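quick one before i forget lol
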Amino acid sequence: MSGAAAPCTVRLARDAADLEACLAVRKEVFRLEQGIAEDIDLDGRDGDALHVLAVADDGTPIGTGRLLHGPGAADVTGGDPRVGALGRLAVRSTARGLGIGAALVRGIEDAARAAGLGAVDLHAQAHALGFYERLGYAPYGEEFLDAGIPHRSMRREL
């Protein structure tokens, strides 16, 4: 798995060090930038998730995302076993605008296909709807608040 257009490598997290790198990116973006509480970000699902990590050419972790599927994703996917849930997508501020977010989404979709899934759902922050729509995701349902931030549910068939 590689981010062709982005100046980085996108891959599945392979070990505890990779998971720590993913969590460090999330801490910087969600907790420090956006003010999201630690107990909301660290929701107890990371052990069951597939994590994707974007690493710059110099080895610096610059982005992450995760894929939940199966019973752990039922509250996001409506219990549909063929659907995975993309979440915790985060790119460090110094690496934004370079295509890394799109490369991470495509990496998560690759992981979903490899897991035998046929679709990916996500809860997008309202300001990011256009980003996900450009990647083929369609919004559904009403806007809702998550961690005090407006969100919409979105889905892409794979």
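fyi Strands lie at 8-12, 50-56, 61-68, 83-91, 119-125, 138-146, 149-157.
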